[in-house]
Fold each of these.
Amino acid sequence: MPYKFTFDISKTPHHFFTELAMVVYKSGMHKVFLKTVQDIIRKFRIQETTGLNLQDAVVLIQDLIDMQALNLMQRQKFLQTKKRALFLPHCSRKYMDSRCKAVFETSLPSYVCAHCSPDCGVNKADRIAREKGYDVYVLPGGSCLPNILKAKKYEGVVGVACGEEVKLSCELLSSMSVARQSVPLLKNGCANTVFNMETLIKTL
Ligand code: SF4
Ligand code: SF4
């Protein structure tokens, strides 16, 4: 399910993400105060650069913090897993039309990247993850997850998605005791979305 707003924080300075990590670390897994979230929004001029109103900016930053906290909490468990999968969102493909040569395999169900464009984020992520021994899925939505998880019984998964999708998948993954790590989209909009490749590589 998409956010009701669009955002692009892909050009936000790198120390923004370091600051989020520090906030998570200092909070010791406790809920971060609204004032802290508002301070981050002000400091990094999130409203000015994204055009979001304060309420939506709070939702966005709070979700990024929650994702980081969950990643930290799950990291050790995740590192002990052997059978892993990477879930990529179809919205990060270079093309959303017939120029994308990925084939949707209903038996999986997932797109299978045909590696048609060297500068496609999904292509790069797919290659890197497979080299590391991951199975890779490119999903049109979170509704594909339950069937894949039930059939394949992965111990650990890495998911690239916007905060809304990550929240929706959390309950399912918890109920199946699957260790997970999330990499947030830095630009949403359900097409031409962006994630940070270095963050993904570190997470894998
Ligand atoms: S931005 Fe991508 S991951 Fe988020 S809801 Fe839209 S299609 Fe799904
Ligand atoms: S590289 Fe893969 S995901 Fe990207 S546009 Fe081509 S087939 Fe689609």
Amino acid sequence: MDVTGWPFDHHGSRAGAGSVRRHNLALVLRQVADGEPVSRAAVAARTGLTRATVSSLADELLTTGLLTELAAARGGQGRPANPLQLNRSGPAGLGLEIGVDHVGACVVDLTGTVRATRTVPSPHRTLHPHTGLALVAGLAAEVIAGAGLTVIGATVALPGVVGPDGVLQRAPNLPHWVDVPVSPALSEMLGGPPVAVGNEADLAALAELWFGAPWLTDFLYVSGEIGVGGGIVLHGALFRGAGGRAGELGHVVVDAEGSPCSCGGRGCLEQVAGQEELLRAAGARDVDDLIARRGAEGPAAAVGVAGRALGVALAGAVNLLDVPTVVLGGLYARLGEGLREIVQCELRTRVVARPVEVVLSEPGTGGALRGAAATVVRERLRHP
Ligand SMILES: [Zn+2]
């Protein structure tokens, strides 16, 4: 669990007993989530709270369905202790994704485990936004029924710039999606649960932070899709920039005289290393065809060009941000070791500060969807 943003009451004298109890409930929940299953005694020892306080707090968390008890371990002396763990049948999070050419939905339980997921093609460059939203709402109903859990909220991963009010302000690859109020529209279609929105690369970066290698706390995540998205994680937290729009790596210029880009610029990384240009240059029908033939001469040359451009853009970002690791996700993760080595080689010669390691995403494709769903349950764990 990340601890950044964990509610800690710095105003104990004014906040009162209710606030202290809420803080302690979150503290106990975090201890269980960090090392379940765990006994009440161990939670007391780790938090410094008394056994009686922990028991009372645990009882409340059992009643509200956030925790469950396992059967007591046999063989000990005195009253057997039932270890605590997060309730796999408790509140669940819904993740939704509206991509350039697909929609997805998934449900995760309190541990972040995916319990139901589905992705289907959907051409959003030509579809009206309302049609796209209705399609994702239908898919949501399907996965909720499949998971059989109570969904307490949703987060939507979007391929563009999102505002704090749940509006998709602009998505360079979706010309019809300008100032679309995604949160209120989907909340109504789904029957009222709170719906948040986030940038798809940011949510995929969070999935990497939460479900990837435990040592990954400072990294730059880059996903290859139709667009090229970036997510920045510093000190175990997402870095969003002054206005929440940081990470637009796809529109970093790698060739000042290059092809015009959907953003209005020219020679952006996306025009060289985005999925469509990569497929075109490789002479591949689709992503599966590219992956299958990536060792052949034409596709290998195309991957080489894309990988070097990716390395150039990433080197600029790494020199600016001083992160020790770059994570390749989406299509780039599927291209595997061949692409990883090309990017690593570029960074070796271009980064001035220190060696940078390039790794492939662990959650892989589907990271944005899982990250979106997990934000919902993690918020509940922070505020039980
Ligand atoms: Zn651009």
Amino acid sequence: MTTTGNRLEGKVAIVTGAGATGSGEFVGIGQAISLLFARQGAKVLLVDRDEKNAEITLAQIKEEGGDATIFVGDVTNIDSCQEMTEAAVSAYGKLNVLVNNVGISGPGSVTDVAEDFWDTVIDVNLKSVMLTSKFAIPEMIKDGGGSIINLSSIVGLRAGGGRPSHAYAASKGGILGLSNSMAVHYGRDNIRVNCIAPGHVYSPMVARHSSDEMLNLRRRAGPLGFDGTAWDVAYAILFLASDEARWISGVTLPVDGGLLAATPLAMYPYLKDPE
Ligand SMILES: NC(=O)c1ccc[n+]([C@@H]2O[C@H](COP(=O)([O-])OP(=O)(O)OC[C@H]3O[C@@H](n4cnc5c(N)ncnc54)[C@H](O)[C@@H]3O)[C@@H](O)[C@H]2O)c1
């Protein structure tokens, strides 16, 4: 069932990485955020470098009667980032919410990662937050403030499982530090900056890149013992974007089925036997 409401009525939002990488209810996080925002009354600028992916999200929002516009661009490019804010303001007159959702990963520890791949991951995941915010914040200030939500990861707080991806871990940890500083230094402009740290979300990206054994382990690893979806992440972001969270800034909210609360030994009784 599709729930609609007015939790973001009157707000204009940019969501990066808003293109569909899945289908039906099995969607990527950016697509889930965009759909929920539109269902709750926001006007949404859907940013993605992949036009076809963005068209799919747009079509779904239009079908549901929502209001959205596509911006095809690259969050690592400063001109693109300036133009995306201009596009939101020109389409809808202002900007209130920015969700920095784009993120890429890939294998490599410090001893074997290629230098140019390291730079790419840091640019796409971390530098992009600076580039999009650089142009979004002045527009938010003009409208009396705003909300920025940055997608980190539990891997920004604890080493992740599977193959090491040190560039990913560094970028997601960097997002936490940057977000805290932004929260402090733009607080008096009534700009709130918060982070979401998703855990083992069963998303199209994860389904494409994980073995059945790894998917099973991801699901069982946390206290709740079932898969989170892109929708679970998107509902947390909806709250932080809305005025319901008007006094919440500078926090990192794990959306992880309780994973960060548990040490490996705490989970031992639940993992020692096969299901
Ligand atoms: N899926 C998980 O389990 C998980 C866990 C923790 C954190 N996260 C974070 O959540 C976010 C979304 O993850 P997802 O699994 O939905 O991703 P996804 O790969 O399904 O979607 C990412 C989207 O970003 C777009 N994109 C990539 N590079 C871009 C660029 N340079 N400019 C513009 N668009 C670009 C892609 O075209 C795609 O549509 C990421 O930041 C990811 O690190 C995901």
Amino acid sequence: MFLNLQNISKKFSNNSVLENINLEIQKGEFFSLLGPSGCGKTTLLRIISGLEHSDSGNIILEEKDVTKLTPQQRKVGIVFQNYALFPNMNVAKNVSYGLEIKKESKDVIDRKVKDVLKKVNLSHKENASVSELSGGEQQRASLARVIVNEPSLILFDEPLSNLDYALRLEAREELKRLQREAGITSVYVTHDQGEALALSDRIAVMNKGVIQQVGSPKDLYNNPVNSFVSGFVGHYNIFSSEESDEIMGITDIGKDEALIILPENLKIRKSEKPTNIQLKEILYNGSFTEFILKTQGKEIKSICFSNEKIAEFVIDDFALLEFNPGKIKVIKK
Ligand SMILES: Nc1ncnc2c1ncn2[C@@H]1O[C@H](COP(=O)(O)OP(=O)(O)OP(=O)(O)O)[C@@H](O)[C@H]1O
Ligand SMILES: [Mg+2]
């Protein structure tokens, strides 16, 4: 095992931010910490890097206990959300800075900087000032600055969140390619479930400082263990015992359980007669359409792909639900 977090806990004043975190990360793995704002992702990343210390627990990196080591002693690179580039230096200088501190020879520095700029497609911007770079280029420059030091572990803290949507998708693809080619073990923090699903080998879903589930993207999406993970990762519809009975017509759900179904597995049929389910919103998305329905004060979501036939709906239409009982899951509340 490459990185092992053992019983990590952290409080700020009396506020418990991380509770007994245990994780095992393999060499070369792209591992994400996914959770809502304030759940402790950055704090955990800072503890792994050495910028912050935990109150208890140990961090084992490549068989070595690094719990008490400084960031410099850990051979860990960090890419921050705001890139933290030096604004008064050009791209090449930003990238070479770490090597100069290590007193590498000029030849070695020049070669390494050229290589890494080529890798991130920034060779043509070598002499540009970082303030002249686009958001995506800045993101690539900050990655180059980290890769050039050949860290054994890279930590990413929401590195794509400053980019607009189209650029974010492009940068996501680029990042995945670079990580795969370089084979550097990566721990990636995000609150964006789509990003985590697309990039990661495995994901730890966190809520309020506690790990809820660890698994591959497919695992988490298809087999969430509780209602937090099902809501956060899959945007499942979640029904309590009573709601299952009243809305889905399923009576055997226990009080401490919930019934869940993915929006794409919940289909709607138009009803000419009034029913207790009414369409409230239609969100067209290109390859699919989301239908937001309301029943007894509860909102539910149905997704229809563009290649599926569905009746023309208008807002306030009455609907009936259709689903394959095999697609329903029962989880802990
Ligand atoms: N230095 C600090 N002093 C006091 N409280 C802190 C400190 N750093 C973080 N916290 C608190 O710890 C909790 C977790 O913060 P953290 O930054 O780890 O969350 P996060 O999951 O990264 O959130 P986001 O997605 O918004 O970046 C928050 O309630 C935050 O206010
Ligand atoms: Mg954060």
